[in-house]
Amino acid sequence: MLTPEEYRTLLCERVPLLPVVEVPPAQAVGSTLAADVTSRVLLPGFDNSAMDGYAVRAADLPATLPVSLDIPAGDTRSLTVPAGTCARIMTGAALPAGVDAVVQVENVVVSGSSVQFPTTVAVGTAVRSAGSDVRPGDVVLTAGTRVAPTQLPALVSCGAHSLSVRRPARVAVVSTGDELREAGSDLLPGQLVDSNGPTIAALARAAGHEVTFVGRVGDTADEVRRVLTSVADRADVIITSGGVSAGAYEPLKLAFQDSGELDFYSVAMQPGKPQGFGILDGTPVFALPGNPVSVVVSFLVLVVPALRAMSGDTAPLRTIRAQAAAPWRRVDHRAQFARVRFTPDGGVEPAGGHGSHLIGGLAGADGLAIVPAGSPDIAVGDWVAVIPFPGR
Ligand SMILES: Nc1nc2c(c(=O)[nH]1)N[C@H]1C(S)=C(S)[C@@H](COP(=O)(O)OP(=O)(O)OC[C@H]3O[C@@H](n4cnc5c(N)ncnc54)[C@H](O)[C@@H]3O)O[C@H]1N2
Ligand code: MOO
């Protein structure tokens, strides 16, 4: 049996890199940079005011000064403030020549066309100087960074017209099982709604990828092989669910065992023990276990890092640390990925039970607490690493 870390490493080492494409900076969110991004410009681009107020020569204050200029943001004139005067200036407006500080409007007394400055001011007060944040040649973001919305201000402002990124993966999702029906269907006894298909598709989109196929196949090896082979040339990644454990009708195993294309593994994790992986016609196939909670856990713990590796991002699994607000017992010796909810004070408590079929319980959970193999039961106050659910 492999540990989750060993299996994750195996996946990350075997997946191919996604192709590099050029995109405008504004479209880079969710993609991973294939090259360092270097600024071509100064940021701020020019000395400008941090406040709505009055631009002054600091040495003149305290004083009452006439207002000689009015400078809104976006004023492109080349201006100089005459000696012995001040300029009304707005936040973001270019600082004119002849001044070295700004006094915010709340700290002055305006009377007619003059302004009284009651106190001294230090040179540079409320001035945002050119290049104080970023200078030409500075590396704004490094290759391998998955671009987040918070990084867009730098990317769209650094003077680059296009960025080299690894494009999102085209993901095909295939649910296996004769018992599955599309949501909304009338169900006969023994049938259930295919929840894994839409869930994997949503998780893949939340991870920044593009879902190009969502389908279902029955429990025959021929059908599974035919569908997977036909989607392989249209997808960068295939993610299946079901059919990988020890039953008599395990279609993934029946279709691919001993073919040399997919291998089947036991991973010491709960949920998510039975797993399959391989490369089919050049396309990696992640064969996840069928239980709905196992699918979510397998995706977040195993597939997300592998998708990141395909994008050239080798950062370790992202977790946050939280303290247990309630105790819970481990279920067995495997590493446990326990469903937890965040408490109002930032701790976590168990949520949703531990059965891999408990989709009602899963709906009330916010993330997975990682309880390493061999560690004792969790006591109140213990620190645990938590993988937050996307969107929670
Ligand atoms: N004898 C053994 N039985 C089982 C073992 C084992 O080691 N020995 N492992 C158990 C574990 S752990 C898991 S996890 C499951 C994995 O089974 P499969 O990957 O073969 O999945 P299925 O049998 O096809 O389905 C399991 C369960 O999940 C439901 N399911 C499947 N697909 C969907 C879907 N798309 N949407 C919603 N629900 C789905 C399915 O109806 C089953 O109830 O095996 C254990 N058994
Ligand atoms: O390992 Mo299975 O994924 O517990 O339910």
Account of the 3D structure:
With 392 residues, this protein is of the alpha+beta class. The chain folds into 4 domains: 4-18 and 168-310, MoaB/Mog-like domain (Molybdenum Cofactor Biosythetic Enzyme, Chain A); 22-42 and 140-166, Molybdopterin biosynthesis moea protein, domain 2; 48-128, Molybdopterin biosynthesis moeA protein, domain 3 (Beta Complex), CATH 2.170.190.11; 320-388, MoeA, C-terminal, domain IV (Beta-clip, Beta Barrel). It has helices at 4-14, 152-157, 196-206, 221-232, 251-256, 292-310, 359-362, and strands spanning 20-23, 32-33, 37-38, 48-49, 53-56, 63-71, 86-89, 101-104, 109-111, 114-117, 127-128, 139-141, 163-166, 170-176, 180-181, 192-193, 210-217, 237-241, 262-266, 269-270, 274-280, 283-288, 320-323, 335-342, 348-350, 367-371, 383-388. The chain has a 6-stranded mixed sheet with strand order 8-5-7-6-10-9, with no helix packed on it. A 6-stranded mixed sheet has the order 17-14-18-22-21-19, sandwiched between helices. A hairpin with a 2-residue loop joins β9 and β10. α1 (4-14) crosses α6 (292-310) and α3 (196-206) runs parallel beside α6 (292-310). The longest helix has 19 residues, at 292-310. The protein is elongated and about 95 Å long. Bound molecules: ligand LQZAQKY5 and molybdate ion. Ligand LQZAQKY5 is lined by residues 175, 177, 179-180, 192, 194-197, 241-247, 250, 271, 273-274, 289-292, 294, 356-357.
